[in-house]
Amino acid sequence: MKRKIVFLLVLFSSGIMLFADWVSIGPTGGQIYCGATSNDNPPIIYIAPATSPSPILKSTDRGETWTVLSTLYSYPYAMVIDPNNSSIIYAIISSLCYKSTNGGISWNQYTIRTNTYFQSLTINPLNSQVLFAGGYAWDGSYWRPCVARSTNGGVNWTVVNNDTASSSYNYSIAIDPVDTTIVYAGGYANGRSAFYKSTDRGETWTRYEFPTNVYYVYSLYVSPLNHQVVLAGATSGVMRSTDGGLTWTRQSTYSYNYSMVAVPNAPNIIYTGSYTSVCRSDDTGRTWTSFSSGILGNTVHCVLTDPADNSTVFCGTTAGMFKSTDHGVNWQEINNGILIGKIPVVSIKPTEPHTLYIEFADNAVFKSTDDGNTWQRLPPILGCGNLCAITFDPINPLIIWLLEGSG
């Protein structure tokens, strides 16, 4: 009988929790995976966190405040905005293209191709009905790189495998802004960096080799000032070509380069996101300088520029969104309204019941002394992963024990 009573109490308690109202009390921030800025002044900024489901957030005041518009079932790998209509947004999630025509409030879903994972997305600057997506598909034996093209605003897609190499992937895509019949893709094939070029709108492709293996090609940029200049951001640096991708030189050794974007009114100024910093080039990719002052978290997966203000840059990390108003030299946190952090551990100090310690995954340990109303970010902890437990010494409450790993 005693077991039944306990079981009923647990069920009753669970029911209460199920219907309780929950309010997020922070800390603000969370891992940002991708984003896009419109051509408006001030620009409309859309971002998506690396969570499933993934809320789509919007800012109309250069990142000072953020509002959740809608939620997608998983996080997008890439987002683009129609250059002619900032209410039209596209997002890529695996084999699906999502399209919003009302500024991210609601979305229509279109299947590109099943058993395919698309990682990148670009829109034709001269004809916004044309989009390209780069990814890879499972053919029953191997992953092979592929490129998808839509000519009717993301509703229907044609997919072309752009290499026969086994265990190969596309991670980046770019359209030549001057000659839009030329499309570039970047990725990884046969254990080396892979770069592909099409001169017939993606129908056929040719692979070109880098002289140095910089591994995965995550980002691409084609200069509108001289469209023979192509940059490829990769795991181990930035490669530069001055002949439309035929030959290459390595211009940077900064790592990852997940995102590469230019200043619209000054396209010789280019930014990339490195592991814990943002890198800037003022000479179309010849030389690079790294800046990290004020950036928290790691993995700068998203870099965005302000089309109306050349000095303003945005970046997204595992700690949230950051903004620079001095060309990327110094950064400040802009997470007001971003409440998407993963909190795997919450620990209440036994001797101080209003004091909480939490693990903010891929970010830091935070402390609150007022039941979570305000939070203090604690100094970095040496380690290689997230915490799975925080506990207090029963004899000396000033001693805190942390357990790292999966537990």
Compose a concise summary of this entry.
InterPro entries: Sialidase_sf, WD40/YVTN_repeat-like_dom_sf, Xyloglucanase_GH74. It contains 1 helix and 34 strands. The chain is mainly β.
Your description of this structure?
With 407 residues, the protein is mostly beta strands. The protein has two domains: 302 residues, 7 Propeller (Methylamine Dehydrogenase, Chain H); 66 residues, no CATH class. Helix content is 4%, strand content 44%. Strands 1-2-3-4 form a four-stranded antiparallel β-sheet, with no helix packed on it. A hairpin with a 2-residue loop joins strand 14 and strand 15. The longest helix has 17 residues.
What's the layout of helices and strands?
Elements: H1 2-18, E1 32-37, E2 45-49, E3 54-59, E4 67-72, E5 78-81, E6 89-93, E7 96-100, E8 108-111, E9 116-123, E10 131-138, E11 143-150, E12 158-161, E13 169-175, E14 183-189, E15 192-198, E16 206-208, E17 217-222, E18 230-234, E19 237-241, E20 249-252, E21 260-263, E22 266-273, E23 278-281, E24 289-291, E25 302-306, E26 309-317, E27 320-324, E28 332-333, E29 345-348, E30 356-360, E31 364-368, E32 376-377, E33 387-392, E34 400-404
Antiparallel strand pairs: 1-2, 2-3, 3-4, 5-6, 6-7, 7-8, 9-10, 10-11, 11-12, 13-14, 14-15, 15-16, 17-18, 18-19, 19-20, 21-22, 22-23, 23-24, 25-26, 26-27, 27-28, 29-30, 30-31, 31-32, 33-34
The total count of strands amounts to 34
Q: Which range does the strand content fall in?
A: 35-45%
CATH architect. name of the largest domain:
7 Propeller
Rg computed from alpha carbons, rounded to a whole number of angstroms:
23 Å
Counting helices, strands and paired strands, the structural category is mainly beta
CATH-defined fold name of the largest domain:
Methylamine Dehydrogenase, Chain H
Determine the fraction of residues in helical runs and give it as a percent range.
under 10%
Report the sheet with the most strands, covering strand number, pairing sense and barrel closure. Answer: 4 strands, antiparallel
The backbone outline, from C-alpha atoms, is globular
The CATH C-level name of the largest domain is: Mainly Beta
**Distinct helical segment count:** 1
User: Low-confidence stretches at least 5 residues in length (pLDDT < 50)?
Assistant: 1-19
**Corresponding CATH superfamily of the largest domain:** YVTN repeat-like/Quinoprotein amine dehydrogenase
Strand arrangement, major sheet = 1-2-3-4
Number of domains: 2
Kindly report how far apart the N and C termini lie.
Answer: 35 Å
Characterize the quaternary organization of these chains: single chain
Average pLDDT works out at 93
InterPro entries: Sialidase_sf, WD40/YVTN_repeat-like_dom_sf, Xyloglucanase_GH74
Protein name: Sortilin N-terminal domain-containing protein
Organism: candidate division WOR-3 bacterium
